[in-house]
């Protein structure tokens, strides 16, 4: 009933504004194909995650037809056509149980991607050259066939600092040495359990590095379930309540603890920021590399494990936390923080991140960038 209501509303809006040149949808709004086809309105899909995930998603209907049992039980990594094989442990959560509604929902929508008039990708060849090239050249994708692709990334939000607390944070960063601060944030929905938050705090303290920690009220539910409860309670008591006793006082001067949220774009773009401990959501990934900041990868849910592996093993701008147990210990956290912030490996990653920053800026440059040209191409098509 809800979907029927949404469909009727979309059709009504489209008719009211006249016949638009095109409609751009999220990949989970494929019912728009059915609405727009009789109206002769071309529908473009905007794939907001990595191109590597899109390649896998286009291959998923074939896997569903040809493979029996669960994908996570396969003896070998998934050989996605034209791409680096994906370890079964890195598969996105939505495809780990083929008997649930979430799997069928995901399969249904990605199975309709070929119906789009074109697909916008929030990426560029500088960061995913193999995945993008395979979409246009590999026989598998040509045989589907998929519509024309338009890499237009990296598209990220603009800097916005308005709150007084944000200004205080930026002022603190202004006083720190260049590339000396580790930014710790787990995206819009990531949280840790109480035990993991304790180990994280001790790891940061033992590392003796400068940091900005975005601390949320911990949830002892699973990380994916905690997404829907992030920031929903407990923040009124402040982070000190759920961090080790005395942590805030002991790290005062070289660390700042922020409750729930921080202006991520502004922090990553600040000259003082030298590393980013992240869940590796694609938006955060693009924001980090566009700022030339290397990453400590701590994936939590969805396709973040795929992203983390690609960033470490293919792009070379991240190091993954070794999660040998349910709770990552303070010693491991201290190790990866020191590695990124003061080790030779960190310097190598920082240089690669710097080059990616330049590549991102070039891709978006007016008149000559690949992403700019890609968007200009489709815009010119709409004009005609």
Automatic annotation (TrEMBL):
<dbReference type="InterPro" id="IPR002213">
    <property type="entry name" value="UDP_glucos_trans"/>
</dbReference>
<comment type="pathway">
    <text>Pigment biosynthesis; anthocyanin biosynthesis.</text>
</comment>
<comment type="similarity">
    <text>Belongs to the UDP-glycosyltransferase family.</text>
</comment>
<keyword id="KW-0808">Transferase</keyword>
<protein>
    <recommendedName>
        <fullName>anthocyanidin 3-O-glucosyltransferase</fullName>
        <ecNumber>2.4.1.115</ecNumber>
    </recommendedName>
</protein>
<keyword id="KW-0328">Glycosyltransferase</keyword>
<dbReference type="Pfam" id="PF00201">
    <property type="entry name" value="UDPGT"/>
</dbReference>
<dbReference type="InterPro" id="IPR035595">
    <property type="entry name" value="UDP_glycos_trans_CS"/>
</dbReference>
<dbReference type="GO" id="GO:0047213">
    <property type="term" value="F:anthocyanidin 3-O-glucosyltransferase activity"/>
</dbReference>
